From TrEMBL:
InterPro entries to which the protein is assigned, alphabetical: AB_hydrolase_fold, Peptidase_S28, Ser_carbopepase_S28_SKS
Species: Nesidiocoris tenuis
Signal sequence annotation: 1-21
Keyword Chaperone: no
The protein's name in its UniProt record: Serine protease K12H4.7
Amino acid sequence: MGWNLLLLLSVFCLLNRSAFGGVARKKHERRLVGLPGGTAANAALPPDQWLIQRLDHSDPTNPGTWWQRYQTNDAWFKNARNSPVFLMIGGEGEASAEWLVNGAAWTIYAQKFGALCFQLEHRFYGESQPRSDLSVESLKFLSSEQALADIAYFIQSMNEKYRLSANNRWVVFGGSYSGSLAAWARLKYPHLVHAAVSTSGPLLAEANFKSYDEVVKRALAASSPKCAANVHKAALAVEDLLKTPHGPSVLSKKFNLCTELDVSNKKDVSNFAESLAGNFQGVVQYNRDNRMADPKPPSVDDLCKLMTDGDEPKLIDRYAAVNRLLTNGTCLDVKYHSYIEEMRSESYDVTAGGRPWLYQTCTEFGFYQTSSSRNEIFGSLFNLQFFIDQCKDIFDQSFDQNRLNDGIRRSNNNYGALGIAVSNVVFVQGSLDPWHVLGVTKSTNPSAPAILIDGTAHCANMYPPGPGRPSAADGGEGQNRTDPRRMVELGRTMDSLQWHCSALKL
């Protein structure tokens, strides 16, 4: 019962990784989650289906409509009076049907409870394109509020299509941004959404997200205290070398830049430093998450070995070795202008979700992972203004700090931030995930329990079971999910999870 219950109350992340090429695509790729490692290679994927949605749910006088993509798996649906309905909410990437077939983690729960399963793609991502382009005029119809209204209308439409009754209760799932949407859907539409599982969802909108790198530092130090110290020293060595006459040329060669670094362009320098930090940020965020990948992505331990082991005396060369590993030997384009030009494209095909997601951060959330002091692990070269300037340079000059602050204030007021008043929601976070500090990790509300799983990263517990998953007892490295010490810890969470099964009457 213990493991089945744990599986039921976990949710995989809904976002998928594309084959990225340009600068903007690569930046956005760091946010996205991989495919489930348990999906059979020959599994038949559910076909795409389409639903007419309103363009603007907030304006009843706007007659505009568009086609939203969704997918269905009814293979386990008992069609009984009380069979549940599971909805996976799409986030800031394309919705991939692999998550709906046998092998994905959530199908274990669907089979157990005979659930009807859907996945709904988020407006302005993937093939769900409300307007013909991604112009600012089009993107004014992109917001979390519009996405939540899409979910509500989708549920109503499926209730009619499948002749579902009030006894067929809807449970929504989501991870990362869509984990936030899952909690907010229950908050805003409790008459439609009976329960939610919110995984790795940032609920507090915040412009200057400095605590992200504080978690990265702790994760590196957990692997090796020397590792975190060496990364910090290497970042400062880069800063110091930038101030020397030959430093830019030396750095350009060491880090295999596509063009020589122009230190007179401060935004190029910030982009360079932020790209090097991103090497570590991405690995920490998705450390050992059991995604479908061959070979498996590098782990925190792999990077820390490069930063600590061997005879290489210069830390800056170790820093460069990490960059070579993460870029697979391709040159690193740090020209700010290249990134801006790519992000200015109003085509859906160019940034694979990067432009619409940046729009949402500029207007609703912030979430900018800044580093503006030499005391911080990645140094002082990319502050908040660097990210605000991107909003202004990509969209227009009105996307300034005032607009950002107004949007963040509105989001937190609208949803309640970390004080969200909601029931029938399970909040799940991983201690190694830098995003957990913006989510609910403690709760005194028995109908909205919070579970912080020690030693796991962003959405890691939502992938299919398998060897090599992080162990809570040993800090997250190299143990199987059947580790008895992990079983003891997970057993302690059962009391806070029991409400879910009883609420569903399953």
